[in-house]
């Protein structure tokens, strides 16, 4: 049983797809201003991606795969948090506009 489990692990392809996906996720999060809105998560994602690349260079494919998947997850979380922050800011701006319009309507100042 252990031999078949080891054979299954040995037959996995190199984690190049996972590394590419992690890099894309980090790039996507950076494009969403994750440095400003999710600094901890994007920093973790970058660190894990770097560690994954180093592990791959040392031939430690399982470790590289695990780190790449973690990097992609943290980058996706950073992306989501950045989008949430931007959406919340937009909502606050729109609410302020509505409040201003209400005040103008109540004051009879309709332009």
From TrEMBL:
Q: Where is the DUF4398 domain?
A: 18-93
Q: Which InterPro entries match?
A: DUF4398
Q: What is this protein called?
A: DUF4398 domain-containing protein
What organism, scientifically named, is this protein from? Lysobacter koreensis
